[in-house]
Amino acid sequence: MNQITEILDSLEAGDVAAGQQLLPLVYDELRKLAAAKLNQERPDHTLQATALVHEAWMRITDDREDSDRRWNSRGHFFGAAAEAMRRILIDHARAAKAEKRGGGRQPIELETWNHPAAHQPEKLLELNEALDRLEKQDAVKAELVKLRFFAGLTVAEAAAALDISTATAERYWAYARAWLHAEIS
Fold first, then answer.
1. 107 in a domain, yes or no?
2. Coil, strand or helix: which one is 44?
3. Which among 4, 89, 112, 148 counts the fewest CB atoms within 10 Å?
4. Structural domain boundaries enclosing 10
5. b or e along 52-66 (b: 16 or more beta carbons within 10 Å of the residue's beta carbon)?
6. Angle at the Cα of 146 (from 88 to 39), degrees rounded to 5?
7. How far apart are alpha carbons 152 and 134 in whole angstroms?
8. Rounded Cα gap, residues 185 and 183, in angstroms
9. How far is Cα of residue 175 from the mean position of the Cα atoms in its chain?
10. Residue 70 falls within a domain, yes or no?
11. By the 8 A CB rule, do 75 and 163 touch?
């Protein structure tokens, strides 16, 4: 994964060709993360992992062209990808909730997953609003939730992406889950 950091550094130095090298290196990992996230979504979800990765890629590369933001590290890049995937899934949940798509109707669930957002877009929207409030209080804990929940990273992977210890990430994860649960309840 050092190669990704080197390419990101080359991009920051203005090497346009480095951008063409980045996508093939991160595509498989992003697709695995997207597939893992979509496996946690409701069974009738119409968004595919490939589409989620492509949309996230378009958003993070389009955002970079319109701003002075930089990817400082591999973790920063995957954080941007996790945020893009989060926003895409939130937009998708809002669309599913829209009245013209039957958002006012309650689906009959034949099987349940232990996370309420899996089958109910309104729960995902509540989580998003609570996550926005957490971000105002503690951006690192909110970023950890995004990496864990939306990008599907493990605690160790998220800790590395945030450049914090695994023990700290575990404490932050426990706190953030409890805080979000209290906010949503």
1. no
2. coil
3. 112
4. 2-102+115-184
5. bbebbbebbeeeeee
6. 65
7. 19
8. 6
9. 19
10. yes
11. yes
